[in-house]
Design brief:
heterodimer, A: alpha/beta, B: alpha+beta, five-stranded mixed beta barrel
Chain lengths: 322, 131
């Protein structure tokens, strides 16, 4: 039947159009979320900087402690993995690339005969590793979208406990670093043990006056002992904030691509629909013209030389109608 | 000469001012900073921090653990939780206090209830001291 093709296409265009509206809305929401996540990262920076600067001061004062969080173990038997992903999908390659990088590292460690322990943040990582029958030590969901400091503290406590109790000898952190709106990159880096203090001081972003002779209360060691767990928390918190910003930036990009694709699809579908409509019209005209032609030619034939069959038919039709 | 005071929590910058004096409670006891204090870093206990502003008025706040550092007249207070006196929700603190007390009455070893008790007491003290 002519026109059915057209109707199918029209329905598809409507559906692509509503998909486009959704992806467009998600794109805009993600854009505001990126801005918010960036702002939160900005607000968290003074604390991180100042904590680092206190550590610098301590290093300059020559405080040396055998803190368990600083302990470098020679031959790690079990490696902890802390993997930050999102709870929700539709964020382009965000989750898969973090998971892939972490899994690659995990495979490499396993090939070296080391055991692993997984601490996962975000439902995507949990789903992935559970499906592949990995053993999951701890998992946290519902925090990666807008991480609070309390969440960072909780995760940091779990991971630090694992490390201090020698359940794991090293902890690697995998997440997507937010470099700029256009660039995010996956990093897998050592989270525990911490660099020793002089290294923290050397790479730190704090602005401490290293020359000043500090007085510490209760003691340099006491301050450091209270400080290091906070330092771990603060590092994890900034990783979480970075990951959240990356997640939203990736989602924004993915949704923008989806919106663009939908637009393209609509253009080509509209073109197809117009052609189908034209085809249908052409066919209809052809049919009409053909029909008229046939009628005329049959009429012309009947006037010159009546066909006995035709006459019989016409008579039959006449009779039934009257 | 005045002190530049910055109070920051992990999530945001809470408060900054220039002040004549800052009083805080460290593990060794109360300590006051005035301009020209030698560089100092200490561990804070839950308690009150008093900032005497340049115009002589005092700003109180409740700080629940953290650090204080001063160098070159820059005072930084790093705290997980810090609240300005007028931001304290007295009713909520009283509620928390009562709850912690009942928990402790049945189980005197409950460490989270003990902490909650101290937090509530600090909040109430600070709120009570401020007109």
């Amino acid at each position: 039947m002519p026109g059915s093709q057209e109707r199918i296409l029209r329905r598809r265009i409507t559906s692509v159009n509503s998909t486009k509206k959704i992806t467009r809305a998600m794109e805009l929401i993600a854009a505001t979320r990126v801005a918010r996540a960036q702002r939160r990262a900005q607000q968290a920076r003074p604390y991180a900087e100042r904590i680092t600067s206190v550590i610098e001061d301590l290093a300059a004062a020559g405080a040396q402690v055998e803190h368990p969080l600083l302990e470098n173990r020679e031959h790690p038997k079990r490696v902890g993995f802390l993997i930050i992903t999102s709870d929700r999908g539709l964020a382009g390659p965000y989750n898969s690339s973090v998971i892939r990088a972490a899994e690659k590292e995990l495979m490499a460690r396993r090939a070296d005969g080391k055991d692993y322990s997984l601490v996962l943040i975000g439902r995507k990582a949990v789903d992935y590793f559970r499906f592949r029958n990995y053993e999951i030590a701890h998992s946290f969901t519902g925090i990666s979208d807008t991480p609070r400091y309390g969440d960072a503290r909780e995760v940091a406590r779990v991971v630090s406990d694992q490390f201090i109790s020698r359940h794991v000898d090293e902890v690697l952190l995998a997440y997507m670093e937010f470099v700029s709106l256009g660039t995010q990159r996956v990093v897998v880096r050592r989270f525990l043990p911490l660099l020793d203090m002089t290294q923290i001081a050397a790479v730190g972003e704090g602005q401490a006056e290293a020359r000043a002779a500090f007085e510490f209360e209760p003691t340099p060691e006491g301050v450091l002992e209270a400080l290091l767990p906070r330092y771990v928390e603060s590092r994890l918190f900034s990783a979480l904030l970075d990951a959240a910003a990356s997640e939203h930036a990736n989602r924004q990009r993915a949704m923008k691509a989806a919106t663009d694709n939908a637009e393209e699809l609509i253009v080509s579908l509209t073109r197809m629909m117009n052609r189908a409509r034209q085809d249908a019209i052409t066919t209809e005209i052809m049919e009409i013209v053909g029909g008229a032609e046939a009628l005329r030619s049959s009429a012309a034939r009947s006037s010159s030389e009546p066909d006995p069959d035709d006459i019989r038919e016409l008579l039959a039709a006449d009779k039934s109608s009257s | 000469m005045a002190l530049r005071v910055e109070i920051v929590s992990p999530e945001k910058h809470l408060f900054s001012a220039s002040a004549k004096m800052v009083v805080a409670r460290t593990t060794e006891g109360d300590i006051a900073f005035e301009p020209g204090h030698i560089p100092f870093a200490g561990v804070l206990l839950p308690g009150r921090v008093k900032v005497i502003l340049e115009n002589g008025s005092a700003q109180h706040m409740a700080v629940h653990s953290g650090f204080v550092e001063i160098s070159h007249n820059d005072v930084s207070i790093l705290s997980d939780v810090a609240e300005l006196a007028h931001e304290i929700d007295v009713a909520r603190a009283q509620e928390a206090l009562a709850k912690a007390q009942t928990t402790l009455a049945s189980d005197s070893q409950d460490s989270s209830a003990k902490e909650a008790l101290i937090r509530a007491q600090v909040r109430l003290n600070v709120a009570a001291e401020t007109p």
